[in-house]
Amino acid sequence: MIRIPDQPKRLRILPISKLAAAPKWQLETLRALREPVFYWFTAGQGRITLGGSTRGFHPHNAIYIPPGTMYGFQAMTRAQGVALHMGDATGLDLPDTPMHLRLRDGTQHTEVAQIIDAIQRELDGAKPFAERAARHQVGLLAIWLERQRSGAGDDSPRGMASANANERLTARYTALLEREYGSALNVSDYAQALGVTPTHLTRACRASCGRSALQLMQERRLFEARRLLSETDVPVQDIARSLGFSTPGYFSRAFSASTGTAPSVYRKARNA
Fold first, then answer.
1. Please, is 199 exposed, middle or buried when counting C-beta atoms within 10 Å of its C-beta (0-12, 13-18, 19+)?
2. Rounded to an integer, what distance in angstroms lies between the CA atom of residue 80 and that of residue 268?
């Protein structure tokens, strides 16, 4: 399967307002990055689908997303804050499951803000070993996350005792889908691998995040198709094959139905 990097693999902090201004498909489509990301929301609200479960977020919410975890945002309203993209996380000892923290204690807000500010200062400054110093601050953030996991504010979709059966099944499906979306597997194949019927899987997905199992699969494949068309010169027929479509014609019809334009036209428009 053809793959391209999601972002340069370096530590960086981006404003949430920039994320909120992204095209709708880029914001809402469930996908996974190959680097960990930490979101800190200071204003506004919206919804996030994380690990197959959709929940609202508000100011003073912190969301940690490990590499390979499918997620997408919806209906972000005046959202402010920062997104910490951690690049190569080797040696940082970060949690391996998603976390959604609703921080109600002012002390917690201060702790997050201080760590983020320290990382930003190092990245903005011109001191020697700034990147190394910033990564040490990320290590402190990893410790802070582990400490919060045992607190009452963790609303994570995985590892949460209150997560229902639909959420757990959908989380398993999205994890499997992220690994295999470039294959020719269909919903029945995924359901069989998960030990359930396709109807049961679709019902669980709809209950957890408002999308059917088929929608989740199609959205993930077409998200990757948009990226490949925009960021590479890989021929359309090779993109179709790499994403599990049986023929280039089938891929073109599916892409056109989703975006309103043919793959070749989309590529020309994006590169114009």
1. exposed
2. 33
Measured between alpha carbons, how far is 137 from 41 in angstroms, rounded to an integer?
Answer: 19
Contact 39, 72 (CB under 8 A): no
Q: Which are the contacts of 172, defined by CB distance < 8 A and separation ≥ 6?
A: 52, 194
pTM of the prediction?
Answer: 0.81
Q: Are 255 and 219 in contact (CB under 8 A)?
A: no
Return the residue matching tokens 């990893």.
142
pLDDT tens, position by position, 193-248? 999 999 999 999 999 888 999 999 998 999 999 989 988 999 999 999 999 998 99
Residue 153 pLDDT: 55
Tokens representing 88 are 């190569």
What is the Cα–Cα distance from 24 to 263, expressed in whole angstroms?
Answer: 18
Question: What is the DSSP secondary-structure string of 146-207?
Answer: HHHHTSTTB--SSS-TT--HHHHHHHHHHHHHHHHTTSS--HHHHHHHHTS-HHHHHHHHHH
Q: Could you identify the residue written with the tokens 């917690």? A: 108
Query: Residue 64, class by beta-carbon neighbours within 10 Å (0-12 exposed, 13-18 middle, 19+ buried)?
Result: buried
H-only helix segments in the chain: 16-20, 24-28, 106-124, 130-149, 165-180, 187-194, 198-209, 213-231, 236-242, 248-259, 263-271
